[in-house]
Amino acid sequence: MPHRKYRALERECHLQAAITGHKETREELEKMEREYKVIADWLEARQRTHHQPPSGD
Fold first, then answer.
1. Which of 3, 14, 17, 29 could bridge to 43 as Cys pair (CB 3.0-4.6 Å)?
2. DSSP secondary structure letters along the chain
3. Which pLDDT score, from 0 to 100, does residue 50 have?
4. How far does CA 8 lie from the centroid of its chain?
5. How far is it, in rounded angstroms, from Cα 41 to Cα 47?
């Protein structure tokens, strides 16, 4: 599942941002974390819509 790779990157950026003491680096890592989250959320939503059974209308 591609979204898992982005979730892992999101978590890694979060952890690195938490331990860095450099303000600009932390801000960039937080920005990357948000971007990875958006991509992972989008991929998960896309996967859900593609794997839903027909509604039977």
1. 3
2. -HHHHHHHHHHHHHHHHHH---HHHHHHHHHHHHHHHHHHHHHHHHHHHHSPPP---
3. 81
4. 7
5. 10
How far apart (Å, rounded) are the C-alpha atoms in residues 36 and 38?
5
Q: Is 19 left (phi over 0), alpha (psi -120 to 50) or beta?
A: alpha
Distance CA 43, CA 41 (A): 6
36, 10 contact by CB (below 8 A): yes
Is the entire prediction scored with pTM above 0.85?
no
Structure-token pair, residue 46? 């896309």
Residue 8 structure tokens:
């892992």
Which residue numbers in the chain have pLDDT < 70?
A: 52-57
C-alpha to C-alpha distance for 5 and 7, rounded to whole angstroms:
5
